[in-house]
Write a structure and sequence with these properties.
alpha+beta; Arc Repressor Mutant, subunit A; 3-stranded antiparallel sheet; 9 helices; 6 strands; 14% strand; elongated
Amino acid sequence: MTEEIKWKAAMEAILFTMGRSVKIDQIAAALGLEEKTIRQLAKEMMKEYEASARGIHMIELEDSLQLCTKAEYYEYLIRIAAQPKKHVMTDALLETLSIVAYKQPITKSEIERIRGVKSDHAINKLVEYDLIEEVGRMDAPGKPILFATTEEFLRSFGVSSLMELPMADPEQLEEIKEEAEEEISVTV
């Protein structure tokens, strides 16, 4: 067995056993390798998983790796396991989630200022669904809680990093700004 095969097998064993994402620096420390080497091995493993007829694949989430079931085999899992609870994503939840995703870390009061309505229910639901989480407190009076998206958010929306989120078209942003200014002038 070559060294490379041994390291890949060790990475696979770690990810399989943990059953969740594992930080790349933790894998590197456990194997006594550089993070750069772990990233290269992970890229090779991802290609190998995709090239072979296997039911799992490896994904990268920010600076972590995880083994996951390929989506095309999900229906077979449902036959064995209880059907996972479907989360109902209302417009209010999606709006709140998008604000958190693009403005994180962000406080509840900042979310409410952007939305223009109370957001307790939406924030609580998103935390319950594990799409956002508390990531600390702001150094301000009252020490408000800061919220940010989770790895579950990345998995749910099929992105490996927040950098992959779509950016708004500058023309659309200008139109939205003009509409908001019109609304403000009408209500004043």
